[in-house]
Amino acid sequence: MKLYIKIALFAVSFVAISAILAALYMFNLKHTDMSKAKPDFIVSATDLQKEFELNETAASARYINKILEVTGTITSITHADSNYLNISLKTGSDISNVICTFPAVGDLSMLKTGEEITLRGQCSGFLMDVLLNNCAKVTKRNKE
């Protein structure tokens, strides 16, 4: 077999093995435990929504992929796919809320609409609502 064919086969094999290892790493990657994570920003649901409404570009640059600790009043609690739970927080806007998605339903069964709550999650953007993923209920604020 010629040398350039051996080099090409080695390169293709190396890329394939690297891709498989990267896929396995991503598949086994654990979500950050939001109940123990330090928030990048602490903000009210009303202020967060207003920032996105006033200047979505600046708010996106500031908040997307950051851990936010948000306080607000629960307007609705809905069950989504599988074991996911969505909690909407009141923002003062008639058309926009902060929606917090919880990956698994745990100690959230005692929550009721109208209750004030503090949640921590990762901001994923603004699509008429501000979206927070992988949320956790904050029971006690960490004093820094």
List keywords for this structure.
OB fold (Dihydrolipoamide Acetyltransferase, E2P); single chain; 144 residues; five-stranded mixed beta barrel; alpha/beta; 2 domains; 3 helices; 31% helix
Q: What number of structural domains do the residues give?
A: 2
Enumerate the spans where pLDDT stays under 50 for 5 or more consecutive residues: none
Computed Rg: 21 Å
> Quick one: overall form?
elongated
Query: Which sequence of SSEs, written as H and E, runs from N to C?
Result: HEHHEEEEE
Q: What is the helical fraction, as a range of percent?
A: 25-40%
What is the CATH architecture assignment of the largest domain? Beta Barrel
- The CATH superfamily of the largest domain is known as Nucleic acid-binding proteins
Strand arrangement across the biggest beta sheet: 2-3-4-6-5
CATH topology of the largest domain, anyone? OB fold (Dihydrolipoamide Acetyltransferase, E2P)
* Top CATH class of the largest domain: Mainly Beta
Mean pLDDT: 86
- As a percent range, the share of strand residues is 25-35%
Largest sheet: 5 strands, mixed, barrel
- The structural class is alpha/beta
Instruction: Report how far the terminal alpha carbons are from each other.
Output: 65 Å
Number of strands: 6
Question: What oligomeric assembly is this protein in?
Answer: single chain
